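notes to self, project folder thing:

trying the whole complex as one job this time. last attempt i did each chain seperately and stitching them together was a nightmare. two parts in total, labels are on each line so i dont mix them up again. if this works i'll redo the older ones the same way
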Amino acid sequence: MDSSINFSEFDFTNARRVKRVGSFLNSIGLDFPSSIEHFVIAKDNNELIACGGLDGKVLKGIAVAPSHRGEGLILSIMTNLINIAYSKGIKDLFIFSTPNNIELFEGCGFNLIENCDNEIILMENSNNLQIYKEKLFKQRKEGDVIGSIVMNANPFTLGHQYLVEQAAKKSDWLHLFVVKEDLSEFKFKDRFELIKKGISHIPNVTIHEGSDYIISNATFPTYFIKDKGRINELHAKLDLSIYRNHLAPVLGITHRFVGTEPYCVVTNNYNKNMKTMLEEPSGKSNPIEVVEIKRVEKDGQAISASRVRELFKNQDFDNLKKIVPLSTLEFLQGM
Amino acid sequence: MNKIDKSAYAGTLESSDAFIEIKPIDQDEIRIELHSSVEEMYGDDIRDLITKCVQELGISYISIKVQDKGALDYVIKARLQAAILRANQKDKIEWEKL
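result (full assembly):
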């Protein structure tokens, strides 16, 4: 490699530089990643020729100028990023990319998890998906209707409780996944405990810790930035393909239950995608039937966790009492 | 001391180098996952080299993942030794054993 090329960690508190990298990425059809912690750039003399970023455990914005492809620059960028990740104690990494780059990243130690519609791929450099699948397999139950729900429950309301009760009634066994990513107002540990308490009266349900493979910052980064008003449809599809092709088969899941979504556009779109992605026939895996359950209403308003958060902000416990179970109420009062 | 204390790595992904990651495991086994651009020609030799090098350091509970881009023998050996020394962080390195 040419010795005039130098690699450096990039200071993106400097707006002028961010703009430069932004226009470099735009020139090859990428956006500057919306959230990023570390960014590495390669320069030849003063010309920007390659870059790559790290956001938590996800590698993003990896690009090489067309005139410098085939020189192995990507390998240096990847080495730099892996060094940074390791120095922060992050060893298990993910990459989003497009299918034409599969071989390239395989050469960097990554394995393909899912190729969705030949448009977007997710890769990882560990075999954690396999380990998670083996863990799930131990909790497999047999039956004609094996239901599933994925919930964030931020926090658990009477609406969530109703959804779980209805789904459990319709299923021989129900698997409930709790979104693990700690990017919501309430911590995973607390959300999990409140769900556990709120459904303790239902006999045929297993509650699972979510993982990087169900609505996480790795599979579905845009889920957690709802205020952008739009979700990346590709991310939603990717998340659902992993669910359908990897997780559901391990547990023998036949149905997925969701609450109707009257308020949140993002979740509503996700539900729509879900119907197409999970139900359409495919050679890879069995279809999963999506069942929408109408939300319970209280005083003419559907119960939602965002309403709970709003009431909690105003410390309005009289109204909260009407829409959360006792266990959640006690938790909120103790906060 | 036939185990390593924690996971560690050494090397780069660049041409003529190898990127080696090691992890402690519970089984008495030298588990090697090799991805090499010269697998067809030298895959078995590289695996032998790695096994021998690990045994020389008296380690037997280890998982080793290697991304090799055509590194020469002594490069692979050096990268592997570096990773193992990093994993065990001894104060004094016994150079005569390397």
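what i see at first glance: The CA atoms of residues 51 and 136 of chain A lie 38 Å apart.
need to look closer tmrw
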